[in-house]
Amino acid sequence: MKELLAHFNKAFESKARLSIMSVLMVNESMSFNGLKELLALTDGNLATHLRALEEAGYVLVQKQFVGRKPNTTYQASEAGRQAFTEHLNALEAFIRTI
Amino acid sequence: MNEHLQTLTEIRSLMERSSKFLSLSGLSGVSAGIVALIGAAVVYMRVRTDWLSVLPYEKLANYGLAQYEQVHLFLVQTAMLVLLAALGLGILFTVRKARKQGQPVWNMASRRLIWAMAVPLLAGGGVCLALLQYRLLFLTLPVTLIFYGLALLNGSKYTVRDVEYLAYCEIALGLLALFITGWSLLFWTVGFGVLHILYGMAMYWKYDRNPTHQPAA
Asked: C-alpha angle with apex B150: B147 to B153, nearest 5 degrees?
């Protein structure tokens, strides 16, 4: 059991972060507002989780301006994709053991 | 344990919901099909030929110029009306379903779906305009089927997978109609009318009636 849990990734401990990663896995990139709409999180909450993922190197951030409005889009990095897949595999293996 | 299972289910749902537009209503298909049937009936009554050899190339070739222009104008006008009515009703039912699901209609997924379909459709529209200009009326109807099928095939990546099968049927019918030229109105009626109604009813039964079968639920 201990062995299985070793593959659980601390960065994905919160459900919000797991949700963000799962959206970024299937979408090439996603805007802040797009994520907010899908996950139904508050601005501050979402920004905190995104920053954590960015610091872990799992998410790439791109800041642009559309006219005068800032438009930030997020992308899953290669490391993020790998970490997410491993985490999911661990989750699946864990569930299978029960 | 239960918590982890639930997490997995939610991840699946999010992945699907964020990349696909799942609010497409079966009733949209049925209404588009009915509109197409009405349109085809109107054309049939107006052009009034043998049902199985509707709009044969030979007959069109015998039309005088004035008569051809008249039929031509009538067909284009009817086609436009059918298109507008089908689109309007289709959007209406889909918006209604999205509201019921509490999902936004205008989001990333729907924009992608519309773009994926718009490109082949506009290209097909261009081809049809050219065919009409060269008086190749008998080719126009099959070509609308083929390009519509290609648009569906392209769009099926961004919505329920079942659209893919409808796409193959439309393309096959269009190709068949290209070779069996005498029956183009009949092929068109089957493709846009009958297939839409069958597909719409299947979708309605599969997703709309019974919410537990909802792919993203």
From this structure: 155
pLDDT at B52: 46
List domains and CATH numbers for chain A.
Answer: 2-97 (1.10.10.10)
Q: Are B135 and B96 in contact, with CB atoms under 8 Å apart?
A: no
- Residue B51 domain-assigned (yes or no): yes
Q: How far is B12 from chain A (nearest CA, A)?
A: 8
Query: Is pLDDT above 50 for B217?
Result: no
> Taking all residues of chain B, what is their mean pLDDT, rounded to a whole number?
86
Nearest-angstrom CA–CA distance, A64 and B114: 25
Give chain B's domain count: 1
Distances (CA, A) of A80 to A17, A31, A55, B73: 11, 17, 11, 58
Domain enclosing residue B103, as ranges? 20-209
Q: Which residues of A touch B15 (CB under 8 A)?
A: 22-23, 25-26
5-64 of A, contacting B, C-beta below 8 A: 15, 18-19, 22-23, 25-27, 30, 34, 37-39
pLDDT tens for B8-50 read: 888 888 888 888 898 899 999 999 999 999 999 988 887 765 4
Contact at CB, B11 and A19, closer than 8 angstroms: yes
pLDDT (0 to 100) of residue B216: 44
